[in-house]
Design brief:
The complex is a heterodimer. Chain A is of the alpha+beta class. Helices cover 13% and strands 16% of the residues of chain A. The chains are: A alpha+beta, B alpha/beta. Chain A binds chain B through residues 1-3, 30-35, 38, 50, 52-58, 61-62, 70-73, 75-77, and chain B through 1-2, 46-47, 49-52, 55-56, 160, 182-183, 208, 210-216, 219-221, 251-253, 325-327, 330-331, 334-335, 435-438, 480, 482, 487, 490-491.
Chain lengths: 77, 578
């Protein structure tokens, strides 16, 4: 059974201009209870890799530069 | 990150705490305070800084027994009645007697509790009978304050390790646990003299109506791993049919929250704006009336604040949009719901196990001991009913102290190396396949069937169909699940816990052939409460590799309940005016 990739609009959005993950910051990745954020190898910035969000907000609250915004997932918006 | 690596490390400690949410940090802290020389390991699937039900803090204590407002006797009586009499009072009384000391200790950590103009704790009434709700003005700082204490006491914190099975010795004594790193799939064997399970609710059991797997009431990390581990270790689990079902903001699926807004004058209404329940405290009996109203022509149900002064609503917003579930404000903004103008549509949550709100948990006594020697449980997953956050802290403290005392006087038990090999094979089986079914699809299907077949009102034929469907999913999980990275591996293990819990929920619900706890265990074919046959705990456990159930008598009450008081929580519906 081959596996498909189904697109979803992810709730956590990172402002790449503000994100300092390329300088070594990993705060949002560290604090996410569901562990859904990663640092992109391509851009060096944080992004939401897995659409498994409890819209709980530690990533946004703890981000030192205000780069992260948690939106309500579309299915329950 | 996330690549699957091979590795197995053995760590030896004295006391192992599994779960770093609420009860776990307190248990680890108290164990270390009791035995400063002991090695105390706190294992957490996420990060202790922001994990568990209180990742973003909490708005207040829902069950504070504060001298001058309530006594341990009153509280024990209220919880016994709220839980329809099925209550071993000793752990409740122990909680009620110690929780004020824990409040003072938390206050010392820098967590503030609301005081009135006289400097006394500002306790509010939300329960049916007594007053136990105490707001926390800086409740957003709880996790930070706890973390500071853990660092100070030099508790060994292991983040991003998910415990998968407990290890026991030859005589059944606890020997430790096996864990897997959620970002590398490397294994850790933790040998310990005593183990405290604090892995939270089984909150990812039912599927929220939104269909979003992660849009649960409980922190979606709480997939019932503790229940599953306790079950497989042979521990007794109590009253699992007494589900957790909560009244929530529809779609958002977070608390509305009547405990915060109620004392300011907000209340639950039907679509006509009329009250229909006497008391907004979350009990099964209240949930039954809530369900009845939703199903009636007067539904849906709302939380009403729009009769309050704008400044009062501002105060409520300042709490609700800051702590526990702060994205609530954003949800309302998207929908254009201003509390000043419109009522908030509510609905009932998916089902789960959680003693924090109901009574479904791993069986524990007043020392937080499970039926497995050396294994303790505290917080949402332990059987002390209506326990909430303060119960998790207090019983976590009880567990930590007792487990440290015991650990100081015993040796490590030897585990069977073959158990570790078997567990590695179980965990990694799905990583060895090239293709198959990913964990999220197995989870979705299991949870959809939980809704279809296990949600109350409970029907025997439906629950049996549910069991058949779960068995098919189990077979798929064991023969066809595919996992491609370490993150998915964690999800696959969670899906297994969820399936275990679904099977336990069906089994326990079929066992108790009566109705009790209002909506939580409403069995259509047995609509009445039957005290003659069922005034007892139902105990579920694994014996000889099979799920079994038995009755266990309720321990004799230490705080007597008059016949006239027993039905207080049955009178929830507002009486019609003549």
């Amino acid at each position: 059974m081959p596996i498909a990739h189904t697109p979803t609009a992810v709730p956590v959005v990172v402002d790449e201009a503000k994100c300092i993950a390329d300088k070594g910051c990993t705060v949002c990745v560290d604090v996410c209870p569901l562990d859904v954020l990663r640092i992109s190898d391509l851009t060096g910035k944080a992004y939401m890799k897995y659409d498994e969000c409890w819209y709980c907000m530690p990533c946004e609250t703890d981000c030192p530069t205000g780069a992260v915004t948690v939106n309500i997932p579309y299915l329950l918006r | 990150m996330d690549e699957i690596k091979s590795g197995l490390t053995e760590v030896v400690c004295d006391i192992l705490v599994i779960g770093g949410g609420t009860a776990g940090p307190m248990a680890a802290y108290k164990a270390k305070r009791h035995s400063p020389e002991a090695r105390v390991v706190l294992l957490e699937k996420a990060n202790v800084k922001r994990s568990g039900a209180i990742a973003m803090g909490m708005d207040g204590l829902n069950n504070a027994v504060v001298p001058g407002y309530a006594t341990p006797e009153q509280y024990t009586k209220e919880i016994t009645i709220a839980n329809d009499g099925i209550c071993d009072q000793a752990p409740v009384y122990k909680y009620a007697s110690r929780c004020f000391e824990i409040i003072q200790e938390l206050d010392g950590f820098g967590i503030k509790f609301q005081k009135n103009e006289n400097g006394d704790f500002d306790v509010k009434k939300v329960h049916h009978l007594g007053s136990y709700v105490l707001p926390m003005p800086n409740g957003d700082t709880v996790k930070k304050a706890l973390y500071r204490q853990l660092r100070r006491e030099k508790v060994l914190i292991s983040n991003r390790y998910m415990a998968t099975r407990l290890l026991t010795g030859r005589d059944g004594q606890i020997a430790g646990a096996i864990a897997v790193n959620t970002r590398s799939a490397e294994f850790l064997v933790l040998r310990a003299k005593t183990v405290i399970l604090c892995a939270g609710a089984a909150g990812r059991l039912g599927l929220p109506q939104s269909g979003y797997l992660w849009g649960t009431y409980e922190n979606a990390t709480n997939s019932g791993d503790g229940y599953a581990m306790a079950y497989h270790a042979g521990a007794a689990l109590a009253n699992l049919e007494c589900y957790q079902i909560n009244p929530l903001i529809k779609d958002y699926n977070g608390p509305a929250c009547a405990y915060v807004a109620g004392p300011f004058g907000a209340y639950t209404t039907n679509s006509e704006g009329n009250r229909f329940i006497e008391c907004d405290y979350w009990s099964g009996q209240m949930m039954q009336e809530f369900y009845n109203e939703l199903q009636s022509g007067k539904g849906p149900v709302f939380l009403k604040l729009n009769h309050l002064h704008s400044d009062t609503i501002g105060k409520i917003e300042a709490v609700l949009h800051q702590v526990e579930r702060p994205s609530r404000g954003r949800f309302h903004e998207n929908r254009g719901t201003n509390y000043r103008e419109r009522m908030i549509e509510m609905h009932i949550s998916e089902i789960g196990f959680c003693s924090g709100h109901s009574a479904s948990g791993v069986y524990v006594d007043e020392f937080a001991r499970t039926t497995v020697p050396g294994l303790y449980a505290a917080g949402d997953m332990a059987s002390v009913p209506h326990n909430y956050m303060l119960g998790a802290f207090t019983n976590g403290a009880v567990a930590g102290e007792h487990a440290a005392e015991v650990a100081a006087n015993i040796d490590l038990a030897d585990y069977d190396a073959a158990d570790v090999v078997r567990e590695q094979q179980r965990v990694l089986a799905a990583t060895r396949r090239e293709d198959g079914i990913p964990p999220n699809q197995l989870e979705y299907k299991a949870r959809r069937f939980v809704n279809d077949y296990l949600q109350p009102p409970k029907v025997t034929a439906k629950m049996k169909l549910g069991q058949a469907r779960f068995a098919e999913i189990r077979e798929d999980m064991e023969s066809a699940m595919v996992v491609r990275d370490a993150h998915e591996l964690m999800r696959s293990l969670e899906a297994a816990s969820i399936l275990d819990c679904a099977e336990m929920a069906a089994f326990a619900s079929l066992f108790r052939t009566e109705s009790r706890w209002g909506l939580y265990h409403h069995r259509v074919e047995y609509p009445e409460k039957n005290d003659d046959d069922w005034f007892c705990h139902s105990i579920l456990r694994k014996r000889g590799g099979r799920m079994t159930a038995e009755k266990r008598p309720v321990a004799p009450y230490i705080v007597p309940i008059d016949e006239s008081e027993r039905s207080a929580y049955d009178r929830q519906r507002i009486r019609q005016h003549a």
